[in-house]
Design a protein that fits this description.
Elements (H helix, E strand, L loop, with lengths): L57 H14 L9 H10 L10 H11 L20 H13 L6 H16 L3 H19 L12 H22 L24 E2 L9 E2 L2 H23 L8 H21 L8 H19 L10 H28 L4 H15 L6 H18 L3 H17 L5 H8 L5 H9 L7 H24 L37 H8 L7
Helix pairs in contact: 1-3, 3-4, 3-5, 4-5, 5-6, 6-7, 6-18, 7-8, 8-9, 9-10, 10-11, 10-12, 11-12, 11-13, 12-13, 12-14, 13-14, 13-15
Length: 551
């Protein structure tokens, strides 16, 4: 993973101060990443009317639509841009099949997360209110409108689910996702007659495959077997030759557009999702009763095989391309999920087990550097992927703060959660969970994070109320194993200091190498244990991420 190893010396000039309160009034400053509000940049013009009642400002709506298509790539862009733009420009909702007021308002709500313009906030004094006005309009349209199965309804509901996730209301938003998946079954799994004028298989292909990919990725996070078959539709076709129109520009930055292998990235997302689906079915099916470390090693080899193929397939001459960096961050996050979520209390220190844990720690360090580079270039844009990766990584490294490189990675991931939490309730709650676990485990946090975590105090009662309703041993169930490994790692480094040998030579291969080895006779992995942070949706996840009071 050499491309992830570049050292970053300075924090992003566009980053927000880590001393900024979470619930203060918004100032009238302009984020350096949103210079489109003061500099004219060429964007796709679309009308605000008749699509939304929230604003009549065509330029602002065009600004948000451009943000959506720029920063939701390459995973969450479920809307096929050319079809959508053409119909939005037509201004005729009654005859549109690929654009609707519901879809437009859902997209505008999501895009507000990427903008610091005053009009992006429902309440100018509340930074967490970004997009709420458009989302409330989308909710109203869904409640009073036609709820029959159609492409735009399916897309809208999936987008609304992710918006609720950002607000830490995933337990509420999951209902939108469930309804979207019901529509997916009707639209994507039926036998498609080419003479059927309702929906073209080719035009359904992109959004249906994207939705299947997103739900598949969610399944491994939620520890659920993913049995839903892929669409009965052709995969988006690779072009016969390079399409010069396939470019990506980090709007609203004043930089050139760069070649973006859009269809290749889509193909890679699908290929990785197929690996993830196979993984979830093997690991989380009720029929599976026995798990061996070799199985986890084999699964990780499939992860690595996909990643190696991805690196070879995607043009590596532009390693700073936003969608490519986003995809690599997501891959690392799922690697950490595989490792961290599978450790049990009884696992002894041995060659295979220490290999897995040390590999996970190296991945965390590398992803911290990659995320820092991404933030310096683009700001806190790839929201879901960044917040999940940093949450996972902070939980894992909490027990290894005595080691400088892991302490540095922990600090970086806490900083990323802090940046994201300025406008996203989910990230704020994740950050507070890290603080709460450190307190319960008696872990002394680095001085560099104390000021950041202190900013959460205004929301303490709200967060503690949610935590009190949930069993949160979290890392406690893994504490013994991780502590034993930490002791072993300390002794290895002490011996290395005395002999001058490499500090981890006796611990096992590093994460930059292929993970191979003989199956362990010990049981490091036990999927009968429910991870209280990454546990099943039904018994934990809805409660944990639902912050609305139920008085």
């Amino acid at each position: 993973m050499g491309e992830d190893q570049v050292e970053i010396d300075n924090e992003a000039g566009s980053s927000q101060s880590t001393s900024q309160p979470y619930h203060r009034k918004r100032g009238k400053t302009i984020d350096a990443m949103d210079i489109g509000s003061i500099v004219q940049i060429s964007i796709t013009d679309v009308p605000s009317q008749p699509w939304t009642t929230v604003t009549t400002n065509d330029e602002f709506v065009s600004h948000l639509i451009q943000l959506y298509f720029t920063w939701e790539a390459p995973v969450y862009d479920m809307v096929e841009k050319s079809l959508f733009i053409a119909e939005m420009r037509s201004g005729d909702p009654t005859s549109s099949r690929y654009c609707s007021p519901l879809l437009v308002n859902a997209m505008l709500a999501t895009a507000c997360r990427y903008s610091d313009r005053d009009a992006s906030f429902e309440d100018g004094d509340d930074p967490l209110s970004c997009g709420n006005h458009f989302f409330e309009e989308a909710k109203r349209l869904w409640q009073v409108g036609d709820q029959s199965t159609c492409l735009t309804n399916m897309q809208s509901l999936a987008i609304m689910h992710y918006f609720e996730s950002h607000r830490a209301n995933d337990g509420v938003g999951i209902n939108y996702f469930d309804t979207a998946m019901n529509m997916y079954h009707e639209l994507a799994l039926k036998d498609h007659d080419v003479s059927d004028a309702s929906e073209s298989p080719l035009e359904l292909s992109w959004p249906c495959w994207k939705l299947w990919v997103c739900r598949c990725y969610a399944s491994i996070v939620l520890r659920e077997p993913y049995f839903i078959p892929p669409p009965n539709l052709p995969e988006p076709k690779m072009p016969d030759q390079v399409d010069l129109n396939d470019t990506w520009h980090p709007y609203p930055q004043l930089t050139r557009s760069r070649p973006y292998p859009k269809m290749e990235m889509m193909r890679q997302c699908i290929a990785f999702a197929k690996v993830i689906q196979e993984t979830t079915v093997y690991l989380y099916s009720k029929s599976t009763t026995k798990y061996e470390p070799k199985a986890i090693l084999d699964i990780h080899q499939k992860f690595r095989a996909w990643y190696d193929g991805y690196i070879n397939a995607v043009n590596r001459t532009d390693s700073d391309l936003g969608p490519d960096m986003t995809m690599r961050i997501w891959y690392h996050a799922l690697e950490i999920h595989l490792f961290r979520g599978s450790i049990t209390t009884a696992a002894p220190v041995c060659a295979e087990n220490t290999q897995m844990i040390s590999s996970a720690l190296d991945i965390i360090c590398n992803s911290a550097k990659l995320q820092r580079a991404y933030f310096q270039l683009y700001g806190a844009k790839a929201i879901i992927l960044l917040t999940y990766n940093s949450f996972q990584s902070a939980l894992f490294t909490l027990y290894f703060l005595e080691f400088p490189e892991y302490k540095e990675a922990f600090i970086e991931h806490v900083k990323m959660l802090s940046r994201l939490a300025k406008k996203r309730g989910m990230s704020a709650f994740q950050l507070y969970t890290v603080k709460a676990l450190a307190r319960r485990e008696g872990v002394q946090l680095p001085d560099e994070t104390l000021g950041i975590l202190q900013e959460l105090e205004p929301a303490k009662l709200n967060f503690e109320k949610r935590l009190s309703r949930i069993p949160v041993p979290a890392l406690s169930s893994k504490a013994a194993t991780l502590s034993r490994f930490k002791e072993e790692l300390s002794s290895v480094r002490a011996r290395a200091a005395e002999t001058g040998s490499p500090s981890l030579a006796d611990v096992g291969p590093r994460a930059t190498e292929d993970t191979t080895g003989r199956p362990s006779r010990t049981r490091l992995f036990n999927f009968d244990e429910i991870d209280p942070i990454l546990g099943g949706l039904s018994d934990f996840y809805q409660q944990m991420l639902t912050l609305e009071d139920k008085e």
